[in-house]
Batch of 3 targets.
Target 1
Amino acid sequence: MQYCVHMPRKRKYNIIDLFAGAGGLSEGFVQAGFNPIAHVEMDKDACDTLRTRACYHYLVANGHTEVYYAYLKGEISRETLYKSVPSHIIDSVINVEISDDTIKSTFIQIRKLAGHKHIDFIIGGPPCQAYSLLGRHHKTMEDDPRTRLYLQYGKFLQEFMPYGFVFENVPGLLSAKKGEHFRNLREYFDSLGYHVQYKMLDASDYGVLQVRKRLIIVGWQKQHDMGYPDIPTKLTSAVVNDILCDLPELRAGDVQSIASYRTPTNSYLSESGIRNTEEPFVTQNITRPLNENDAAIYAFAIKMWNNNRIRLKYSDLPIELKTHRNEESFLDRFKVVDGMGCSHTLVAHLAKDGHYFIHPTLEYCRSISVREAARLQSFPDNFFFEGSRSAKFKQIGNAVPPLMAKNIAESMLRLISTSKTQIPKN
């Protein structure tokens, strides 16, 4: 497997990240060489995660990574970490819900952060639950304001007039309300002066050990239209067990805030950038506790999958392990992560329970840990998630895999460098 190598460039393009979450999308763009001016996010824990990561990137660039790792080791407080960088680094994360009431003040904050710099690109994807199959069970799509957040996204395009944008969402956006929402979105962005193209991408095609299909929309100002970037696939022979094997042993309910790796690294972990070589330890290897009955179900599911490649259906459980009578819906609520292939799609529901993400090792008999989930999403081991255990799982489940985002970002840079259409220099 080969990964793109970041090459020196004369110019760094400036971005703002909307509906940023924990910053998986912008992490990939930063790794590719883009310069983040601001992140806008409504969730407080995710904003703290973004601030901590912004500190990391600043400290790396200025040769002071020891400060960041002192924080990971618990030697300094988060307040001390934040005070170790210029105030604009912390201020670049704007904790606000994007709405008609807040958008003007958010514009002012971003312009202050940007100074004389032009915003070259906007990236991000509004919350996508409204377009997912699960989201449709809770309220009708017409009543859900999340289906109209692309209008707020468009207001940022109008305000900052970036040369282009990347808009990420779930596949359900294409089919929602028989395609009406997506048609409205394209027509709206077209009216703002942007030509929109889109493709359905799967993270597993770009080195991520997870099947995760996402709609990636790319828009360009019509006078700078460069088309959809060619994003070469990065297929790998690695499997999920390759990203689990070096982590410390962990039982249900264990909390390893910091621990040494169990084995040396391997080619996948090194080439993907997941396991860095800066420090010989890993953080946030934390898992949830498990009651006796669920542990028995997990063991049953693991044996069925590992021995026979059969997914457990709730109706197949022995009567003594069943806790309710519903045997008609959600029969696959207990699901083992495929250690010999790619994981199924991580979702934010991981914050509620781990039944759908059971570790493939029978001896562990537990759901995946925070760090294991982060690795399945291709987050580097030095990426630190703030908040409670549930908050961490939620942030990870909602994120865009950074490795996939990096491939998108690098393909856009190649497109810019080879296109006859030129983007003005700042």
Target 2
Amino acid sequence: MNPFLAPCLRAGVAALVALAVPASAGLLLDADPDWKEGEVTMPAAPREAALRAIDIGTPSPNDFFVDEESVGVGADGVVRYTLVVRARGGAENISFEGIRCATGERRIYASGRKDGAWAPLRNSAWQPIVDNGYNRPRAALARDYFCDGPAGPRDREHALRLLRQPRDPSNSSGVH
């Protein structure tokens, strides 16, 4: 085989494999095998004035918001935020969550109570972000707002800029 052709063939095969694995499935190999999650501190209860509406990209009977005051990027690279989901009938669900862009995973740490306290989830674990009905807001936050592929926001201010100016899905360059 031509020695100049072999690297091109390897690159082509790698590209085809990458395209065959859906982005929402998460990465098979961790970008950093020594990664450790940092300490998680629950935020204050969301305030109405700090809620930013997000577009999940599909019709829904619910409205979705992220509490801007809760948005943070840990030293561990995890984007953490409070998600508020409101049904048209007035029901509301509040959760404190994290997205790890490097692996395409999400975690729900706690559920918010009416009194503003947090109830930690018993089975809180990192799970692949799957673009289905229940996880649609998380998939939208990862794809359209916080993550640029495996790269997450640099810091809180960068995360807030991304939240305020989501990617335009019609813009193939992915530029905000």
Target 3
Amino acid sequence: MSKLRKVYDLMMAGAVAQARWEKQMSDNILKNKKRLIILLALITPIFLISILGAADILGGKSAYAPSHYTTTVFVASIAVGLAAGLITGCIGAGGGFIITPALMAAGVKGILAVGTDQFHIFAKAIMGTVLHKKLGNISLGIAVSFVIGSVLGATTGGYIQRAVYSADPVLSEAFISIVYAIILAILGFYGLADYIKLSRARKKGVVTQTDAHGGGAPLTTTKLALSIQKVKIPPVIKFDQDFGGKTISWIFVTSIGFVVGILAAVMGVGGGFVTFPLFVYVLGVSTPTTVGTDILQIIFTAGYSSITQYAIYGYVFYTLAMGLLLGSLIGIQIGALTTKVVPGMLIRGFWVMTILAGFANRASVVPDKLRSLNLWKISQGACDIFILVGNIVFWGAIGMFAIWVLGTFFKNLKAFKQEG
């Protein structure tokens, strides 16, 4: 198995773990009356503001951002959150990857989409997290070292985003789109290869151990991780005591946190999809400890980054954030119920389709951005065709998936009620 293949498998494991966390957050909020009241208290005034069409957004370069809270923008954000929630709940991985691309495809500028997406993750975390349930899976030394690194990384990533945007908003759009295109290409094309391979195996009657999402952590500690664990730069952290006990220098954990913090701030995501390959493949940390630490880092990293690197500079669109939160909470519940009545292979196929659609959408705008920056001599007409095709593919795939899931849900609604 190639190293890139191992990275993909672990990225998927991280995405699956984060999807489970999102489902738990949704359950904790929607099944708790006090949290529901808080959610309504947050959303109601924003909904009223959107109806009135009042209040320009604060900060940032308003010429490049939505200038008014409108009912259309609020409803659109709920739809985007709903679609992401359906993917997360139904497929169990990858829903968050489409939020920033979807907002950008809808006309929201990249830096605002990133800041808003990350703020919605933080809002969901602080409303839904019950830390004591997961503390048993957290190594305090690793968690503290990691968060120190992720805070420094988020600061760096936020600075890079703002600096690029200040230099040229078009360059910022190109930068964010290229980063997303690369990540979604890795996930999408490897996922497609997995899907084709598994489909052929099933047709031949071959029984495989691959689950609906594919991938997983290596069964043994990698050679790279063993080499890193031999370096004893103090202070040295003890971890995985339930798995024989291991030690690692804080400098490596902090460095990994730094990388995750940068990516989280640049992409507006939780960072789970990179925490897994880096922790398991590079550091040799067990999956339970990785899951627990990742949940903790999402709260601190997303909170710190969204507030100090985006919100105070005016790069969080609160109407969008609350709409995303509301839509995703509902979507996750519907998606999770739908998995009970549909084949896993079909779900997996839809996941590959949506990820590749996101890749096509972000990749389609890059030629136009490079043309605007005078880095590529290509006609405006050709760029317009690329963008049109990218939008048709993206919204068509997302819309098709959402309609299919909602249709399946309402078709089986009676059965779900009887089970409940």
